[in-house]
Amino acid sequence: xxxxxxxxxxxxxxxxxxxxxxxxxxxxxxxxxxxxxxxxxxxxxxxxxxxxxxxxxxxxxxxxxxxxxxxxxxxxxxxxxxxxxxxxxxxxxxxxxxxxxxxxxxxxxxxxxxxxxxxxxxxxxxxxxxxxxxxxxxxxxxxxxxxxxxxxxxxxxxxxxxxxxxxxxxxxxxxxxxxxxxxxxxxxxxxxxxxxxxxxxxx
Length: 203
What we know:
The protein has 4 helices and 11 strands. It is an alpha+beta fold. The strands form 2 sheets. The protein has an 8-stranded antiparallel sheet with strand order 3-9-11-10-6-7-4-8, with helices on one face. A 3-stranded mixed sheet has the order 1-2-5. The chain is globular.
C-alpha cells in the first residue's frame, strides 16, 4: 500500500496476495487461502484463451473494474490494481466446442453492495441491459493446491495431469473445477512465455 498525493491510497492486490499468486509454484504447493472477494460472471464459449477476452461476460468484467475504480478513488480515496483473470472451464476435453465457464477476478473487500449497485447502474446506462449475472461474491477460506504452467497453452493438459496425479498420490480429494489463473496476458506474450497458475481446491 502506497499513499500518494492528496492521501490517495494505491494498492497492489497482487503484492497483498503474493503468496497465493506466485510464479514460484513450479512444484505442487498447498495453501490455506483466506476468505476473498471476487467479481464473477458465467458464460458459454470455446476454451480459447485468445478469444475469451472478447466474450461479453469477461469484457464487461473489465468495464466494471474500470468504472468501480471511479467510486473507490473519489469516495474512498483508494486506487487498486487489477488482478489476473481466473477461469473455470466446465469441460476441459472440449477445446473447440462451446463449454460453460466461470470467470473470476479478485477485488478488494471494500467493494460492497452499494458500490456494486452504483457501478451496475452506470454500466447499464452505457451498455444497455446486461443479460447475464455479474456479481460480487465472497469465497470462504479454503484449502488449495497450486502448480505453475509455463509455455504454450496446448501443453497445459500435461501440467493439469501432473497436479492431479500428485494430489491423488498424497491422498487428497479434488473439490470443484480447477482454475486457470493467467499471470501474464496471452495477447502480450508469445506462447512459450505464458505463465498460467493452476489452482485446485482439495479436501
